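Appendix B. Raw example, untouched.
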Amino acid sequence: MSETISPLPTGLLPDEASPEWLNRGDNAWQLTAAALVGLQSVPGLVILYGSMVKKKWAVNSAFMALYAFAAVLICWVLWAHQLSFGDKPMGIMGRPNVLAVTQKYLLEQVHEKMIPQADYVFYQFVFAAITVILLGGSLLGRMNFYAWMIFVPLWLTFSYTVGAYMIWDKGFFSEYIIDFSGGYVIHLSSGVAGFTAAYWVGPRHQNDRQHFPPNNIIHMLAGAGFLWMGWSGFNGGSPLAANEITSLAVLNTHLCTATSLLVWMFFDLIFYEKSSVIGAVQGMMTGLVCITPAAGIVDSWAAMLMGVLAGSIPWYTMMVLHKKSAFFQRVDDTLGVFHTHAVAGLLGGLSSGIFAKPNLVKMFYNLESSKQGPGLLYSIINQDDIVHFHEGFKQMGWQIAGAIFIAAWNIVVTSLICLFVRQIVALKMHEDDLEIGDDAVHGEEAYALWGDGQRHRPLRSLTPKIPAIFRRR
């Protein structure tokens, strides 16, 4: 009996299903990379945040991450992607395009790459989403959830999009700064913005700030695992193709991360005589962040050296400097996002300016229109007709200038957003709610059965008196 070949669906021609410019391997990898980055947030950071905080804040912390992921997606597709990567410049951002949600736009080719715009829109969305969620790590355990609902779309629109446009797309720094996958756009911005927002929101309840143990370390490790493995897509997706730069970026990502984790653990052993699981997770995070701006444009030995820096310098700022500095003590950064992301992101950006290898930079960037590289190290040891001594110092200057711009922009814009939001709703929960936690805020508890289902008496925020929710402090 002969087999019958099913025809293509009505109205779908072979060239329409797979146009000549589309590379199926690149397309498949880009969708996979985007999915891996998405898994870093949901369920990765949802689990990590819900487990790394005190038991009474597990639901609220996880819910803040889940809400941000959903809200950013809608805002990103409707306007934020065009503000970040729009074809028509509008000062420090792109111009919104109402046609960006149509089939005509989403199925177009992305510049000279062999993937459709829909891939790029989704990949950049998961970057934007995880940036906002990382920022939220500084605010856990006290920010009014209604204030967070307003803050997320505003910060995405007026802060994140500007950084993405200025460094990654057509902005002033885009032809000069090396930021392979978001050391500045994502991590430096989230760390600085989180610390700034934490200042305006105010500290947690005094008891929480003094004693804030994780409620489930095993689940915390599961969330951290999603982050680590998902970073293969985070850095591996940046070339927008399944090529040799992609492979190098993935390998370097894991080498730097493992090195940083071990260095952080050894510092804990030396100074505290115990290896901390939480410390290991922090070291893992700083390694992932540090390699991000350099993943595909440095040699593997440099990636491991960056891991040593990532496991030691943020350890010092978090475990020593933070405890001695009145400035750091004044601001309640719940999960230490400033150290794990701002410090590590800055360290990675500066390291990129030192270790960027000329031929790898040339492979990743289109040097006919861009002026990135070489790294300072190679400009010193390899002076020839291609690499000149002064070029490395010039690159370091651009790396520093870009860091200053991102930090300053996020401090100013995040402050303005917080000041605006508090005119509408209190940035911080009521003191009574802070004492109770999840049950007071959401009417739910993460581990209600462990307490035989006991519930606290309803507080003011659970009654029908809606104006109490929006009362300004």
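End of appendix B.
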